[in-house]
Design goal:
Number of strands: 8
Strand content: 25-35%
Order of helices and strands: EHEHEEEHEEE
Radius of gyration: 16 Å
Largest sheet: 4 strands, mixed
Shape: globular
Structural class: alpha/beta
Number of helices: 3
Strand order of the largest sheet: 1-4-3-2
Mean pLDDT: 95
């Protein structure tokens, strides 16, 4: 492999896409907008026909896309930095979402939860 004269071609992560089952858009909106406070943004018309939805907040962009043979991602996952970690964990738990604290990374406060379809999400203290 040819060496690259700089450290990386990649500059930043633009967005994360999570799979959802057909018809899951409303439940996604309840979770990402209603529970976590992101804003839904319009998809380009050519992509809107495929279903799914796009959500964002400052520094966070999540796309959910319909997958015909949907299977939740139990291991692969995005990790989000969040403020007020304990309050967010309580907020998710009160809404019926599991919160599993994890101390396997020294010096990192974090927990795992799932979206309404069982996709794994990691939440890390900012």
């Amino acid at each position: 492999m040819k060496q690259i004269p700089h450290r990386s071609w990649l500059l930043a992560l633009d967005h994360v896409q999570l799979a959802i089952p057909a018809g899951g858009e409303d439940r996604s909106r309840e979770f990402w907008v209603g529970l976590l406070g992101l804003t839904e943004v319009a998809k380009p018309p050519t992509l809107a026909t495929r279903g799914g939805a796009w959500f964002e907040a400052p520094g966070v962009v999540v796309h959910v896309g319909v997958e015909a043979d949907f299977v939740p991602a139990a291991k692969a996952h995005p990790a989000f930095r969040a403020r007020h970690l304990d309050a967010l964990a309580a907020h998710l738990a009160n809404a019926g979402f599991p919160v599993r604290w994890d101390d396997e990374i020294p010096g990192t406060r974090r927990f795992h939860t799932v979206d309404p379809f069982g996709n794994r999400l990691e939440i890390i203290s900012s």
